[in-house]
Amino acid sequence: MPIPAIPSRAELVDHLVRTRIAGDVATPRENNLSHYRKLANGDRNYWLGLELEDRWNDEQDVLAVMAERCGVNDDPEYRYGQDTIDPELTVDALERLAARLRKAADGEQRVLFATGHPGGLLDVHRTTAAALRAAGCEIVVIPGGLQTEEGYVMQFADVAVLEHGATLWHTHSGEPMREILKGLEREGRPLPDLVVADHGWAGRAGQSGIDSVGYADCNDPALFLAEAEGTVQVTVPLDDHVTSPRHYDPLTAYLLNAAGLA
User: Which domain of life is it from (predicted)?
Assistant: First the structure.
């Protein structure tokens, strides 16, 4: 079914469910619970650039936050099968994100965009960056020559990404964001007023005291925990890699319209 260029809330909710960005998502319950357990057990690969210490060492506490903020099944005995993202929570978070984008536009702030999930979210970030630039914001250009153990930190279509073997790389690490912030400081340039990102890029920015907003899947609990603690301002729950990146276009259109940037 075609969807309007700027959908209503009800039309967007229907679209999110039909494309499995929310609703019954592809990520299975057992994968979600495995990630919650690894985070609670201190596996830093699941901390997404954050310093959680021992504050979330009970996986049932993690599950409770994920049920509240993402919409996964809250029954700890439900261990296998389909899991969910509540599309209403997705749209609620998009509207909170829109308010922060509006603030950035009104203040002509410096904004940095980054993604660890270029196969799904690169164009969401690129389109948002273009809208903020048109509104007078400075889109931060990252320093050159940055790299981590995983690869090179580069900028493509206004969005910082990790490049490895001539390929844009999927990463959960916060190290690329750490290198960007260190590089800006070395060059005597101001840090961003706002980071719009996902995965460890968003987590590390928030941990560094920068206003950070982002997107996260139901098997990536760290950003939702960070939002609950106030380290990350907004975390939008969604499946971050569905069958076509074009499925995110109505979501982006709704976001920019809500921010007054359409």
Answer: Bacteria
* Residues 115 and 242 sit within 8 Å (Cβ to Cβ): no
**Antiparallel, parallel or unpaired: β 234-237 and 167-169:** unpaired
- Amino acid, res. 218: C
In this structure, which long-range contacts are made by residues 137-141, counting pairs with CB atoms below 8 Å and at least 24 apart in sequence? 137/104, 137/105, 137/108, 137/109, 137/110, 137/111, 138/108, 138/109, 138/110, 138/111, 139/111, 139/112, 139/113, 140/110, 140/111, 140/112, 140/184, 140/192
Distance CA 208, CA 52 (A): 13
DSSP 191-223: PPSEEEEEHHHHHHHHHTTSEEEEEE-TT-THH
Tell me which DSSP letter residue 114 carries.
Answer: B
Using DSSP, state whether 121 is helix, strand or coil: helix
- Residue 11 CA to residue 215 CA, distance in Å, equals 20
Q: For residue 235, which amino acid is it?
A: T
Residue type, 162: L
Q: How confident is the model over 7-63, as pLDDT tens digits?
A: 999 999 999 999 999 999 999 999 999 999 999 999 999 999 999 999 999 999 999
pLDDT attached to residue 3 = 73
What mean pLDDT do residues 235-251 have? 96
Q: Does the global pTM surpass 0.85?
A: yes
Task: Look at residues 221, 233, 242, 250 and name the one whose alpha carbon lies nearest to residue 193.
Answer: 233
Pair 35, 46: CB distance under 8 Å:
yes
Q: At how many degrees (to 10) do helices 87-106 and 118-134 cross?
A: 40
